[in-house]
Amino acid sequence: MQVLVTGAAGFIGAALSERLLARGDTVIGIDSLNDYYDPRLKHARLERIARIDGARFHFHHLDFADMAALEEALDGVQVDRIVHLGAQAGVRYSLENPAAYVQSNLVGHANMLEFARHRGVEHMVYASSSSVYGGNDKVPFSVDDRADHPVSLYAATKKADELMSETYAHLYRIPLTGLRFFTVYGDWGRPDMAYWIFTKKILAGEPIPVFHGGEMWRDFTHIDDIIAGVLAVLDHAPADDGAVKAGGSVKPHALYNIGNHRSEKLLDFIAVLESACGVKAAIDWQPMQPGDVVRTYADIAAIQRDLGYQPTTSIEQGLPRFVQWYREYHGL
Q: Fewer beta carbons under 10 A from the terminal one: N or C of the chain?
């Protein structure tokens, strides 16, 4: 099977590409390799993927928001399924550079839907986000909950992606599945994420920024559990049978939460990280940031019921593994 993976040099995209190659698939990777964070990490991920099977990994350095470049690069290339993970990430950065989110997350997503339509792909899985739930007071967050009040532009673009996908599933009967990821962490992760920033500063003896008095909770999900869920979803396209799917659609379009189904208090998370680093953290207390939410917590009943998804990695297991990887990667 030939799988097109956008964002292939990203955290989740690279991990997924490795697993697809390991199970015998061919991967066509796309990434713009932008400088939102250090491109050297992205290149290192690509080198790691190529070492698994360079003959079945075909990488294209391009921006999928450029439809002409996308079509030219993949002209005549067979694509059976798509996992569209590429996007402009980051809640706080969306306050600084909204145009990047419009271009990548809206124009780019529309391009991928058009590509899927014209190529007649078996299934396109795409990345949404837990941020679509905004400041919902009801926890845990269920895919059946209303998600109409995003508190950041990033969240608004992800909700828009879900709406566009519903329309394409209705008009063109394309099998589509959106995945609402909950705070993914682990080896080869993103340097803009809190766990990476905390680890870097703790090991350097610098204070870590903690917002809202530490009264924040996140459903931290290890990358291994995320990839297990993505693969299960990829292999089970929603049927065009008129039945109600997860998320409420009667079209061939499903929505799933992928989380750990545990909402960890930030201060408890920091305590586990301190233990893994062997250093007590100094705290730089800061106010709540615009666009942030106090709590995320995934109700994963739908994906458990439909696909048997069951996360197995606790932060007590996952964080020490990340710290060990971090030390090795940076030669510490």
A: C
